[in-house]
Amino acid sequence: MGGLLFGFLCGTATMERVTTDMFGDKQEKTFWSTLKHNTARFFGIILTIFGLCISMTFLMYGDGRTSPCKSCDAFSCIAFPPWTPYESKWWYCDDCGAVTADARVNPDTSEFDQLTINCPGGDDIILDIGSEEFQSDRAWIEGMLPKLCRQYCPNVKG
What we know:
Elements: H1 2-14, H2 31-61, H3 73-76, E1 100-105, E2 112-118, E3 124-128, H4 138-152
Antiparallel strand pairs: 1-2, 2-3
Helix pairs in contact: 1-2
């Protein structure tokens, strides 16, 4: 909605006015009509710049937790593409992208055997990763953390 509004304001502030010759009306330009035209364009540009500055301030310094609009979460992020199953999306609207974990190494095999995921809600989930479905590779585990978070952490907003 913001992009639509600012696009409209930018367009109206900077567009060339349609000449009256197009409609067959031969009205001569006076000083006052030129002044009114330029004043409207000037204030449109100022309003657009002001709106962009306010929007950039909210985007750069506002996060979902401090937003004055608590019901705007549904508009600020949409998991994409919306027609695919949840586990096949390209990006998500949750905090699982920044989840951390601690991995325990089995001293006998020198491989990871337990993973403690620090969930976004403050819960800790312990997973046994000694089975064959999990690889004992650090890069693989780091890449799988967001998926494991979405799968095992409670209260993950999706």
